[in-house]
Design a protein that fits this description.
Layout lengths: L2 E7 L3 E7 L6 E8 L3 H11 L2 E8 L11 H14 L4 E6 L3 H11 L4 H4 L2 H24 L1
Parallel strand pairs: 1-4, 4-5
Antiparallel strand pairs: 1-2, 2-3
Helix pairs in contact: 3-5
Length: 141
């Protein structure tokens, strides 16, 4: 089975998480600078079989897309053009940064480690991916 890759897309950094080949568990992978994302994806797809890309899509409380989607939408359009064989899924990412921060506290990370924005982005991507996996399981029931 192929993996599912997840991106928490930001203007400066992109948090990346991935499933195991059985698509059971979401794991934090890395954080990459946004301007290097295409190179990262090209290398990753050459090494690993990925069937789905999940991208955190920010929404406001009224369920409308937030302003930051203007940075994400061009990426999504280019991704679909460059990788038409990889399924693209959007997942509501509301509150994931707050959840990631709380997860880091609960995990016992020191204050200095919790201030590492790259770590927060990668943990956020993991939370988004885990939410997506749970949603997919519930749809199969």
């Amino acid at each position: 089975m192929a993996r599912i890759l997840c991106l928490d897309y930001g203007r400066k950094r992109v948090g990346v998480a991935v499933t195991d080949p059985g698509q059971i568990i979401a794991n934090r992978l890395t954080t990459v600078a946004t301007h290097t994302l295409w190179d990262f994806l090209k290398e990753y797809f050459a090494k690993e079989k990925v069937e789905t890309l999940v991208v955190g899509y920010p929404r406001q409380m009224n369920n409308e897309a937030s302003e930051s989607v203007r940075y994400i939408n061009p990426f999504l359009k280019k991704f679909q053009k460059d990788y038409p064989d990889i399924r693209l899924e959007l997942f509501d990412e509301r509150f994931t940064s707050k959840m990631a921060f709380q997860t880091m506290i609960d995990g016992g990370l020191k204050k200095k480690q919790r201030q590492d924005k790259a770590m927060v982005d990668a943990v956020s991507a993991t939370i988004i991916l885990q939410g997506f996996l749970e949603q997919q399981r519930n749809l199969k029931k």
